[in-house]
Write a structure and sequence with these properties.
Strand order of the largest sheet: 1-2-3-4-6-5
Strand content: 15-25%
Distance between the termini: 65 Å
Number of strands: 6
Order of helices and strands: HHHHHEHEEEEE
Number of domains: 2
Length: 227
C-alpha cells in the first residue's frame, strides 16, 4: 500500500543556507582553476570572493531566523537547521581565516601550475643558473629585467597565458639576490621568489607594502603576495 503521508518539503530558510554553501564551493573551485593569471579577471574574482562571504553570512542569518520560527521547533527540523548552520560556520572559517581562504587557494593554484610544468626542483635549478650569469644590463646596478631568451621552457609554460615579467633583484636578507616571477597586476599581484637554499626574505620589503606576506614553499622558494 502506498503511503498517503505528505512529503515534507525543504524549508526555504535552509535553501538559502545551502545556496550560500554552493556559491562558496563554486567560487573556491573557480579560484583553483583560473587564479589571477589574467589581470581583467581581478575585476571578477575579488567581487566573487566578497559575494561568497556575503552569501554565506546571509544564508546563516536566514537559517537562524528559520530556527526561531515556531513551526520549525520539531526535533527533526531543529537538527536540519543546526546541521546547515554548522556547515555554514565551518565554511566561513575555512574561506576567511582557515587554510581554504582565497589567497591560499591562489597559492595552491600557483603550486599546481609549477608542479605540472616541471616541479620546484627544476625551477630552482634554472634560477640558480640565472643568478650565476653575468648581468651587465642590470638597471641601476641592482635590478635586472630578465629577457625572454633567458627564460626556461618551464617558465615559458608557466606564463603561457600572459607573460608578466621575470626579474633579478635583492629579495633576501644581506642583499642576497633572487629571481622573481611576477603574476597579476594592479592592486593585487604576487610573485614566486627563488633563491639559494637558506635564503630568507628581507623584512624591509614589507615596509613598502603593508599588506604583503610571504608563503614558504620549500628551502629558498617563496610565494610573495602583495596588495
Amino acid at each position: 500500500m502506498e503511503s498517503t503521508a505528505p512529503t515534507q518539503r525543504m524549508s526555504v530558510y535552509i535553501k538559502f543556507g545551502i545556496a550560500g554553501l554552493v556559491v562558496t564551493v563554486c567560487s573556491a573551485i573557480a579560484f583553483i582553476l583560473f587564479g589571477f593569471i589574467l589581470f581583467p579577471l581581478v575585476l571578477i574574482f575579488f567581487p566573487l570572493a566578497l559575494a561568497s562571504i556575503i552569501t554565506l553570512l546571509f544564508g546563516g542569518v536566514f537559517v537562524l531566523f528559520g530556527l526561531t520560527r515556531k513551526e520549525n521547533r520539531k526535533l527533526s527540523r531543529v537538527l536540519q537547521y543546526l546541521a546547515t548552520l554548522s556547515a555554514i560556520i565551518a565554511m566561513l572559517c575555512l574561506v576567511t581565516i582557515g587554510p581554504c581562504n582565497f589567497i591560499r587557494l591562489i597559492d595552491l593554484r600557483t603550486r599546481l601550475v609549477v608542479a605540472l610544468t616541471g616541479g620546484q626542483d627544476e625551477l630552482q635549478s634554472w634560477a640558480m643558473q640565472l643568478l650565476d650569469k653575468d648581468r651587465d644590463r642590470m638597471d641601476d646596478s641592482r635590478r635586472w629585467d630578465v629577457p625572454k631568451e633567458y627564460w626556461s621552457q618551464q617558465v615559458r609554460r608557466i606564463y603561457w597565458i600572459q607573460p608578466t615579467g621575470v626579474s633579478v633583484d635583492n629579495f633576501f636578507e644581506n642583499n642576497q639576490r633572487g629571481v622573481r616571477l611576477i603574476f597579476g597586476g594592479g592592486f593585487f599581484h604576487w610573485s614566486i621568489v627563488i633563491g639559494p637554499p637558506g635564503s630568507v626574505p628581507d623584512p624591509k620589503l614589507n615596509d613598502f607594502v603593508l599588506d604583503s606576506f610571504w608563503i614558504r614553499w620549500r628551502d629558498g622558494i617563496y610565494n610573495w603576495a602583495q596588495g
